[in-house]
Each structure stands twice: as C-alpha cells, then as structure tokens.
Amino acid sequence: MKVVIIGAGFGGMAAAIWLSEAGHEVELYEQAPAVRTSGNGVLLLPNGTGLLRELGVDLTGLGARMDSVDGLFRDGSLALRVHLSRIAARFDAPVLVGSRGRVAERLVARLPEGVLRLNMRCTGLEQGGGSNPVVVSFADGTEVKADVVIGADGQRSVVRTSLFGEDPAVYLGDATWHGITDLPGDFASGHAVHSVFGDEGICVMHPVGEGKVYWAFELPFSDGDVLPPGAVGDTRSLREEGSAVTNLRARFGHWTAPGLQRLLAAMRDEDVSVFPHIIHRELPQWGKGPSTLIGDAAHVVPPRVGMGLSQALEDAWVLSRTLAGSGDVEAQVRGYEQARIRRVRGMQKAARTLGRKTVPMPPWLLRRIGRLLPVTKFNLAQVKNSSNYLNNDLPAMAVQERP
Ligand SMILES: Cc1cc2nc3c(=O)[nH]c(=O)nc-3n(C[C@H](O)[C@H](O)[C@H](O)COP(=O)(O)OP(=O)(O)OC[C@H]3O[C@@H](n4cnc5c(N)ncnc54)[C@H](O)[C@@H]3O)c2cc1C
C-alpha cells in the first residue's frame, strides 16, 4: 500500500519508520529544506521514551534524567512534590528532559533511505472516492497519488484544512516564553524540575546538564507585553516591539525562589522564544476516507501538559500497527482515530484547566493539597490514561504484536 505522509516532524518521522518496517511504500514530504533540529528542551514521559526505544532510538545522551517536579511558592517554599522516579520505575522507562534537536537528529538517522522528500510544500488534497486514490498537490505543481494520506503537518495543518475547512486553533490568552541559559551550579547538574508559581505567572526550570537550564515562563498577556509572533485570536492589546527579558524581569524580579534571580540576570533576549497557547476544537474524527491526521495537526494543546511530542509518537504507533493489520483501509483509519481520541481527550481537558488559572488558590490550601493528596499517583494515572502504548490498547483489527 502506498502511504504519503505530509510533514517530517516527530509524528511524521515516527510514522514513516514504522510504516516502512511494516512493508508499506512510504513517501514523507517536508516543506522545509531540512528537518528542523533546532529548539529547546522537551519533557519525555515514559510513553515517549518507551516509544523512542521501539523506534530503535538510543536514549543515551538524549537528555537529563528527571527524578521529581517540585512545586514551589515564589519564596521557594515547597508546596508539593511529584516523584517522577516512581513513575519511571512503574513503566520501566525513564523520564527525560531531552534536547528537541537531538531527538529529531536520531529520528532522521532511523529513516529508511529515499523516504524523505524535502522542499515539498503540500497545498491540499483531493479524495478519490470509492477505490480511487487520494491526490495530494504541492506548491511546485507536483501531484502524487496515495492509498492513504497522513497529515503530520503540525498546528497549522494544510491537510486538516483540506479535510475540514478553515477552523484554526484558538488562542487561550496565555503564552510560554522559553529558552536555554548557561547557569552552572548544583541546580543545573541535579535531577529536580522546579515549578514556581505566583499571581504573576509560572516559572518552570529544568536542569539539562552541561551547566545549562531550560526554562519556561507561562504568563498572561496584558497591555505593554510583546506580541508573540504567529499568535492567533485576540491580541489587540499587545505591542509589537520591546524586550522580552525586560518584561520578564519586571514581572518576576521580586520572586525569591532559589536560582530565579540568577536566571533572570543571565537571560538574553536572543535566547528567548515565545509560544502562544492555542488549542484545537475537538473533532469527532480526524479524517475522511483513507486520509487522517496525527500529532499537533489533530490535537494541538498548550505546552503546559508536556505531552505533545509523546502524543505524536502515540498516534504514529497506533496508526502504523492498525495499518499493518487486515481489513478495509478506511475502517482501519477510523479505528485508529477512535482508539486515540478517547485517550487524547484527557490531555485536552488537562491543558484547558491546569496551570496559571489554578494558582489563585491560597498557599495554605495548596500546601494541604500537596500533603494530603497522592500527587505522584495522580500524575502516574494521567500519564497512563493518556497512553495507548502503556496500556497496549490497540483497535481489534491492529497487529497486536510487533510485526
Ligand atoms: C514551547 C513548546 C514547548 C513544548 N514542550 C513540550 C514538552 O515538554 N513535551 C512534549 O512532549 N511536547 C512539547 N511540546 C509540543 C511538541 O513539540 C509538539 O507537540 C510536537 O512537536 C508535535 O509534533 P508533530 O510532528 O505533530 O508536529 P511538528 O513538530 O510541528 O512538525 C510538523 C512538520 O510539518 C511540516 N509542515 C507543515 N506544513 C507543511 C506543508 N504544508 N507541507 C509539508 N510540510 C509541512 C513542518 O515544517 C514540520 O516539519 C512543546 C511545544 C512548544 C511549542
């Protein structure tokens, strides 16, 4: 069967590797002149690291091992602790803060020869109907026929628009400002993520080794903030110029949590990227005919849940296993979608409700929650419930064992 995949991000590359292994004829089209290997840190939960191992990716040197997330008040006092080491032990797969670039490089190295086609921007597709193939069009005029088309083309997916019309992800009013900064010391070589919260926003600091810290500030926009490039939705109150670092120092300069002042002093504007929080409308199915979506094209969520990459790998895993099974192709594709949609819903709900907006709780209440509630068990359940892989949950028509 000929499978055309649009977009060589994490989801597209994983699908190309697994579908080629299953014996399909695979073509992977990417608009850029090279696969993107830049970027910051990325949290890899046990489903993410487990699936990377399934893809034949060596985890050695991919990132730093994380043993806990410490939720701190802005004065540095502890509100709650999530033991990531227990979650990792439960699933026999580590929790890492990986380098996005290194993950991408290792996936590129696993792609079969001749599968990747660069500088190919997809402009749309035409469903064949009946047993006719789907026709995919590209900006240079090329047309390609396929038995199955997979839109792995990210949050502004052309494939999604071709299938369902204009329905862009909506802006939720917050953004994450993030970067990597040299901050040698005990924290950078440790294994605890610090998530510091207060009325002004949230600051998450991840030690990534080699004297570096990957940091992310989550905050609302208000008058005078810098406009996030590519923001969608209501951004009318935002200015288009200014210094992100000056803005962050003004907002968080009085916080006294450990390391925060040093971080604010060391940050430089050229290290800062911004990601406005957007979310897709939840669709009852992700495709039509033999065409479907995976990854951010199907379900972009704000980065606060730290699951986007792992969920893209989950989609690719379930879809490849299902297409390796027997039966009608359209039924297989719909089977994949339903198996994933019921797992992804929880992540979408968490992404809408967790984070900055839960912070206005009084500190005594948060401390009590941290002491009384089994927060590690809660997180473990969240990771497990959002994963088909950790539950070996595949549609009945899928190949249940590795082909
Ligand atoms: C600030 C930030 C922090 C994050 N932190 C985490 C985290 O800690 N943990 C985590 O798991 N996830 C995290 N994520 C999310 C994660 O990076 C994404 O969910 C993941 O990259 C989605 O992968 P994808 O393959 O679906 O899409 P992408 O990685 O976006 O890939 C899409 C690809 O399609 C290509 N493309 C687009 N349009 C076309 C076209 N028309 N024709 C051809 N090619 C096209 C693009 O060039 C790109 O290569 C974070 C994201 C952000 C922005």
In summary, what is this structure?
The protein is α/β, with parallel strands linked by helices and 403 residues long. The chain has helices spanning 10-21, 46-54, 84-91, 100-110, 158-164, 244-252, 260-266, 296-299, 308-323, 329-353, 363-372, 375-385, and strands at 2-6, 25-29, 41-44, 63-65, 68-73, 78-83, 96-99, 116-117, 122-126, 134-138, 143-146, 148-151, 170-182, 192-198, 201-209, 212-220, 273-279, 291-293.
Notes on the structure:
The chain has helices at 10-21, 46-54, 84-91, 100-110, 158-164, 244-252, 260-266, 296-299, 308-323, 329-353, 363-372, 375-385; strands at residues 2-6, 25-29, 41-44, 63-65, 68-73, 78-83, 96-99, 116-117, 122-126, 134-138, 143-146, 148-151, 170-182, 192-198, 201-209, 212-220, 273-279, 291-293. It is an alpha/beta fold and 403 residues long. The strands form four sheets. The chain has a seven-stranded mixed beta sheet with strand order 6-5-14-15-16-13-17. The protein has a five-stranded parallel beta sheet with strand order 8-2-1-12-18, with helices on both faces. A three-stranded antiparallel beta sheet has the order 3-7-4. α1 (10-21) runs parallel beside α9 (308-323) and α9 (308-323) runs antiparallel to α10 (329-353). The radius of gyration is 21 Å and the shape is globular. The two termini are 16 Å apart. The model is unreliable at 229-240 (pLDDT under 50). The site of flavin-adenine dinucleotide has 33 residues, from α1, β3, β13, α8 and α9.
Order of helices and strands: EHEEHEEEHEHEEEEEHEEEEHHEEHHHHH
Regarding CATH, which class of the largest domain?
Alpha Beta
CATH fold naming of the largest domain: FAD/NAD(P)-binding domain
Name the poorly predicted regions. 229-240
The average pLDDT is: 88
CATH architecture call of the largest domain = 3-Layer(bba) Sandwich
Multimeric state: single chain
